[in-house]
Amino acid sequence: MISMLYLMNAKGDVIIQRQYRDDVSSSATDVFRAKVIAAKEASTSPPVRLLDSSTFVFTRHLNIYFVAVTRSNVNPSLVLEYLYQKVRVLQAYLGDSFTEDKVRNNFTLLYELFDETVDFGYPQNTSVDVLKMYINLGKQRQKVAQDQGSLTSQITGAIDWRREGIRHKRNEVYIDVLESVNLLLSSTGSILRQEVTGSVMMNTKLTGMPECKFGLNDKLVVDKDKSSAHSGKSGVAIDDCTFHRCVSLGRFDADRTITFIPPDGEFELMRYRVTDNINLPFRIIAAIQEDGQTRVTINVKCTATFSEKLFASSVTLKIPVPGNTAKCRIKCTMGRAKYVPEESAIVFRLKRFQGQSECMLAADVQLMPTVRAKAWSRPPLALDFSVPMFTASGVHVRFLKVFDKSGYTTNRWVRYITKSGASYCIRI
User: Fold this and answer.
1) Is 381 helix (H, G, I), strand (E, B) or coil?
2) How far is Cα 176 from Cα 87, in angstroms, rounded to an integer?
3) For residues 92 and 96, what is the distance between their CA atoms, to the nearest angstrom?
4) pLDDT tens, 320-370?
5) 11-70, pLDDT tens digit by residue?
6) Contact of 200 with 175, CB cutoff 8 Å
7) What is the largest distance, in Å, between two alpha-carbon atoms of the chain?
8) CA gyration radius, the chain
9) Distance between CA 178 and CA 390 in Å, rounded?
């Protein structure tokens, strides 16, 4: 596994290093410095390099390189994941934007973290909550001393993401279903690509070690439920999903139930992706007419397809115009629109857009004459939006059951938010 781990700055100076095995010498840092950093290949080089019979796996945080060296045939994904977790652990101790000076001023802390997270080259515990219980450099003192057995179970046990003895005055669970919609629509209105990526964020404030069962309207689960089938409810076909490590994957594979012992506080329970039967929140019809080389007429109609009880916020529609635009005369039924020369677009903004309503925009664009006539490429329209209490995929939370020995009552809150993804475009 990992033979040596070290941190190096952008100049190639080693900040701190820890050697776990003797099959790699300290001169390996010179090889990485000469062939990667000095050659200025760090930004373009793949994160796994074979140099002088040694494998270098590295990542970068600001101006600090985290480098792992090995001579064995290791799984590079495992080493990369450990390096990412190492960065996350140091961010928890030193701050999100820790610098080289902070690292040099906390050598004792870093050596303790190196020894706790790796044992003889094998990655061990990288849970921030567990590490902070035992590595605090005297800043925090445990009120109750734990025995050796409890310490061992926290570090090497199966549930290292939650410690025992947690108590809350009010037992509450907050669930946020966040979705991003990506769309590419042709000029004729046909869908070229559509996708919804979602995540289920949870903030748990529960006493003890409760077991939770979480259910979505997954198509495979709903089809098995005879009562929902008779009531006419249809499930959502989820293409793929990933879970937090607290979820019991064995039970999910067996009966598609999401069972877990949650961490205390905020965490991401799962991510999912849906590509079929997407309910697009907006329908846009654009008519662009070029009158010679001196004028362009634009008419855009935007309709909100979601329920009239809901409202979209922060709606921004960018309508491209030619680069040689001289002046725009714009009329819109609601909101505000103006020509932004820096973006070569008309930016149409609405603070609040009610469902089942529509708005119109008409623009008369005057163009400057050019020496060489060049056809306008017609970039696509881009839409940004946020719609609370709406899911484009149709995913919704069916239930959340909390089981604990004491049998306390749990308050649950669910919130849905759908936003535009990285690309929500309509070709013109």
Assistant:
1) strand
2) 26
3) 7
4) 999 899 999 999 999 999 999 999 999 999 999 999 999 999 999 999 988
5) 889 999 999 998 888 888 888 888 888 877 777 788 999 888 899 999 999 889 999 999
6) yes
7) 84
8) 28
9) 9
Size of the chain in residues: 428
**Of 310, 227, 239, 304, residue with least CA distance to 272:** 239
Q: Among residues 161, 162, 13, 174, which one has the least CA distance to residue 85?
A: 161
Buried b (16+ CB within 10 A) or exposed e, 12-24: eebbbbebbeeeb
CB count, 10 Å around CB of 153?
15
Work out the burial of residue 218: count CB atoms within 10 Å of its CB; fewer than 13 is exposed, 13-18 middle, 19 or more buried.
Answer: buried
Tell me the pTM. Answer: 0.71
- 238 within 8 A of 258, measured Cβ to Cβ: no
The pLDDT tens digits for 119-170 are 888 988 888 877 877 787 644 434 333 444 455 455 555 577 888 888 999 9
